[in-house]
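Lecture 7, part B: from sequences to assemblies.

Below are the input chains for today's worked example.
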Amino acid sequence: MVEEKLAPGARVGIVGGGQLGRMLALAGARLGLYCHIYTDRSDDPAIDVAACSSVAPYDDQDALARFVDAVDVVTYEFENIPAQTAEFLAAQKPVRPSPQVLALTQDRLVEKNFISGLGIEVAPYAQVDDAGALARAVAQIGRPSILKTRRFGYDGKGQALIRLGSDLATSFRSLGGQPSILEGFVPFRCEVSVVAARGLDGDFVAWDIGQNVHEHHILASTKVPADISADLAARAKDKARKIAEALDYVGVLAVEMFLTEGRGGPRLLVNEIAPRVHNSGHWTMDGAVTSQFEQHLRAICGFPLGSVRAHGPAEMLNLIGDDIYRWREFLAQKGACLHLYGKSEARPGRKMGHVTFLKENAQD
Ligand code: AMP
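Predicted structure of the full complex, as structure tokens:
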């Protein structure tokens, strides 16, 4: 029998074995949950800390069948899971957030249509299936603009900037000629994200808004609270709530937005939805009553959601590649909370850990 609401002692299946899975498994242990990681890589960082793990390809039906049989609920820590895998698992046990949410957020065009269909502003965009469509889209949207593949893009991969002199056929080919969208370049004042959670009963909570800085398309730091007015923060949370409710979402989600200056005042444009715990929510581990990882598990298990109250201002810094070698310096700093992901090789661009600085006040 499939129980909707679980209890401590439940077995939580997590598809994906990266640092997000690792931090979910650590939070799960604290609540007396048994986390079972399913990954296709035997050296993934979540394996070291989880109660169990299965290492097999994401389309291995026998391995997936054994995995789903051994757990009470399934979640995931990255969104590029094959749709068939999510459907296969959902036929046996609850998958939260649902495979429909996964399918929607896997395709930038479907996602943008959905968000704008809710009356939420996004950057101007157009569907691009071939070089001819790209020329028409550029004529409509203008330059600079960004060509993005509809599927499987992350950390700036699958993107090409279209500048004044860019040759359109070359740009389209540089992304492998895949179905794409063209997006107007947003001259943003800053990037913010709402990390929020929706429970099985429809309860909705959102942490303070994070202000994000990206370097080379990878998140470098998140400052909380964001440097925006209380009114804008409320508007940002409202958009996230609207999205979560329309998706009948269960779990933690992040909604990334651009803040721009419009003629009628500041505007928030939604860039994308991450249907999972998110790097811009890592500060909650040390800076809030309930971390995003614990909250996600509470939501998918049907537990009451925890308080999202922040202890004070905080700033999270990602440790990317060689930054990891600064671990001793961070350990020696008061108010610095260090998290290392246990990855053996510090490759450039690889997220190796993060450090959260808890501050006395916003100027600190
Ligand atoms: P994405 O993969 O869509 O999250 O994009 C990664 C990063 O590229 C964003 O966080 C922005 O810094 C930048 N970016 C993406 N889309 C746009 C846009 N339409 N205008 C300006 N910057 C963008």
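Note for the exam: The chain has a mean pLDDT of 96. Keep this in mind when comparing with the next example.
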